[in-house]
Write a structure and sequence with these properties.
- This protein has helices spanning 23-26, 38-48, 68-85, 140-147, 170-174, 202-215, 218-225, 242-259, 296-304, 316-324, 354-367, 380-387, 405-412, and strands spanning 3-4, 9-10, 14-17, 28-29, 89-92, 95-102, 105-115, 119-120, 129-131, 152-153, 158-161, 181-186, 193-199, 236-240, 267-274, 282-290, 308-312, 331-336, 341-346, 373-378, 393-396, 420-422, 430-431, 435-436.
- The protein is α+β, with helices and mostly antiparallel strands.
- The protein folds into two domains: 3-281 and 422-436, no CATH class; 284-398, Conserved hypothetical protein from pyrococcus furiosus pfu- 392566-001, domain 2, CATH 3.30.1760.
- A hairpin with a 2-residue loop joins β6 (95-102) and β7 (105-115).
């Protein structure tokens, strides 16, 4: 088994469904999507029916906190064992080059296993693999219950590298015609097309690893980001699935005294992507608060005082345009309720991003009993639809510039939680590959 400890990579067999499997039914979207839209997951279950599917191997978060949660955790692990015993999963040796096309955009990634010993999700971390946003510890227990004792992992984790010269993934993409095809199909429910090619040529593999080593060179790193040796090298920034990776890390720290350092659970299968890939977009993650017991405008005015200003918008289109083209001074975000659509502007903000201004207000409002629950949603349509329902409040936020990500994390640490999304909900990673961890 090939190991590249300098860049935290271990080559483990990657499992894919056997030939003849209906891949459109096999692959389903990340479990943390459409959490306030159960009808999406009902449609998935209807489509999958009794066919082999990753739907049976994950717990859609729409089920969290429901009577179905406990039984679902047991059924997922049972399905994993059944698929392994029945030969549904077939191992493949090497890296996998992934191409995802949706809405005319194609982004590329590389499947590999990363060393959890080189990952630390705590604030202030200087590890090689780092979270880009704050980790919500309360969100880990249900994920731990799912992964703990599971024989397989299915990643929806997307990890970013900062490779402006395009030295790691893009040379493999240029040679795609030479690579054996593993899968090539349309994803369900309008989520585009997915292609996977096997990188089983050792020279190609070594070249990709050497390119990663150059990105992690201390001299290059310090020069690129204008820092000295007091800053640890950041090679991998977790873009999506931070809580899933944090779950894997938590379980590894728990079991390693018993299993030793040479165990598959020490590693996590992820897809790495270049933050400079033209097909990769950063979308904002909006907020919807449910069961508000207090007028939100009054709560905002009380929290922000004289720095708070509200302006009515005649349409959601104008609100969206204003948020996306906000001035340099102050922070502006959209506000949506059953009866109102407008712009909130906070002058003299204490943080760099509007989400950093808004999130502490939401946390304080929930804690005081002004509302009961917050959800994090993707896309204008979802926040408008959900925020306009009786008793709900929607907050529409602007996107951040993806070119600022690495330097911001290096200099300032993790961003506020749920700051950005790598694409809209339907563009999220689908479960396709698996790896044996137990």
């Amino acid at each position: 088994m090939r190991s590249y400890p300098s860049v935290g990579v271990q080559m483990y067999p990657i499992l894919l469904p056997r030939t003849g499997t209906d891949l459109q039914k096999w692959a389903v979207i990340a479990c943390d999507q459409f959490t306030s839209e159960p009808e999406y997951w009902q449609e998935v279950a209807k489509m999958v029916a009794d066919e082999p599917s990753t739907y049976n191997l994950v717990l859609p978060e729409v089920m969290l906190g429901t009577p179905a949660e406990a039984a679902r955790i047991q059924s997922t692990q049972a399905a994993m064992r059944q698929y392994m015993n029945d030969g549904v999963l077939v191992p493949h040796e090497g890296l996998i080059l992934v191409e995802r096309t949706v809405d005319g955009k194609t982004r590329r990634g590389l499947m590999m296993s990363l060393d959890l010993e080189k990952y630390d999700f705590n604030r202030g971390s200087q590890s090689l693999i780092r979270a880009t946003e704050g980790t919500i510890l309360d969100r880990l227990p249900p994920r731990i219950r799912i992964r703990e004792g599971a024989p397989l992992e299915l990643p929806h984790i997307l990890v970013l590298i900062d490779d402006p010269e395009r030295t790691v993934i893009e040379p493999l993409a240029a040679a795609t015609a030479e690579l054996p095809a593993l899968y090539d199909f349309d994803l369900m429910l309008g989520s585009g097309h997915l292609t996977g090619k096997l990188v089983d040529d050792l020279t190609m593999e070594y070249n990709a690893i050497r390119a990663l080593e150059k990105l992690a060179s201390p001299s290059r790193f310090n020069k690129r980001y204008g820092v000295d040796s007091s800053k640890g090298i950041l090679l991998y920034a977790v873009g999506d699935g931070n809580h899933s990776l944090a779950t894997a890390k938590s379980i590894w720290e728990k079991i390693k005294p018993q299993v030793g350092m040479y165990h598959p659970a020490r590693y996590a299968l992820v897809e790495i992507e270049n933050v400079h890939d033209e097909g990769l977009t950063f979308e904002p993650i909006h907020r919807v608060v449910f069961n508000a017991h207090e007028d939100v405008e009054a709560a905002l005015a009380r929290y922000f005082g004289q720095n708070y200003h509200f302006e009515v918008c005649p349409s959601t289109q104008q609100m969206v345009h204003a948020v996306q083209h906000q001035p340099d001074s102050g922070h502006t975000f959209g506000l949506l309720t059953e009866t109102a659509c407008g712009l909130v502007t906070i002058s003299h903000p204490q943080t760099n991003l509007p989400v950093g201004t808004l999130q502490p207000f939401i946390d304080a409002w929930l804690k005081s009993g002004g509302a009961e629950k917050v959800d994090y949603v993707h896309g204008e349509e979802a926040v408008v639809k959900l925020g306009s329902q009786p008793g709900s409040v929607g907050f529409y936020l602007p996107a951040m510039d993806k070119s600022d990500l690495f330097k911001t994390v290096i200099l300032d640490g993790a961003l506020p939680r749920k700051t950005f999304s790598m694409g809209e909900a339907k563009e999220k990673r689908f479960y396709m590959e698996c790896r044996q961890i137990g």
